Amino acid sequence: MNTFSYLIYKKFRMLTAPIYLIIDLIPLNSVILDLGCGRGIITEEIKRRRAPKRYTGVDLNYKNTEFLRRRFPDFLFVSTDALEFVKICIDKNEQYDCIIISDMLYLIDDELKRELIANAYKILSNGGVMIIKEAGHNLLLFLQEYISVKILHLTEGTTINLQSVRFYEDVIREVTTNYVIINIRRLWYPHFIIVIKK
Q1: pLDDT value for 1
Q2: Could you give phi then psi for residue 77, rounded to 5 degrees?
Q3: Taking the CB of residue 106, how many other CB atoms lie within 10 A of it?
Q4: Per-10-residue mean pLDDT for the chain, 198 residues long?
Q5: Taking the domains of the chain in order of start, what are their residue ranges?
Q6: At the fourth CATH level, which superfamily is domain 3-197?
Q7: CA proximity to 190, closest of 139, 138, 143
C-alpha cells in the first residue's frame, strides 16, 4: 500500500470507526497484542499516544505486516492466523496487558470467534483488558464489506459473518462476566466495543 492510498484509507476509517475511543481504552506503557492489525491505523495511534512497553501485531495478510514492519521497525509484526498465534502464546505461557481484536471477527465463522475469544482471554494478564471492536450489521455495511472482501480483496477473509452485540455477549459470558459494552454510531456505521477486564 502506498502512502497516498494509506492516507485516504486512514481518513475514511477515522471518520467511520471509533479509533480514538479504542486508543483511550488501552493502558499506558503496556504489553499489547493486536489481533488483526490490518493496515496499522490503531498501531499508529498506539505508538503516538500509548507508549507501549511492547507491541505485537498479527495479521493474516503478509502485505499488511510487511508494510507495517517498514513503518514501525521497533514493533513486532507476525503474518499468521490469529487463533494459531494465540495458541502458541498459551503454549509459551505469554501474557499481554492489553489484547485488541478490532474489525476481524466478522471474517471468521462463529465457532472460531468463540475459540479465539476464549483463548485470547487465557493470555490476558491479571488486571489486563481485552478490547473487541466490531461493526453492527446493516445492509449498507454488509455491501461495503462484501465488495472489500469478495470483489476487491482488500481484506483477507473467507466469509462475511456480521453478528449482533447480543451474540458476542453470549460468547463472552462463557469466559467472564467482567465486561462492558459501548454502542456507537458513526455516519451509517453502527459499532460496538466490548471491554473485558481480567
Answers
A1: 54
A2: -125, 135
A3: 20
A4: 66 72 95 95 94 96 94 97 98 98 92 97 98 81 65 69 89 96 78 94
A5: 3-197
A6: Vaccinia Virus protein VP39 (3.40.50.150)
A7: 138
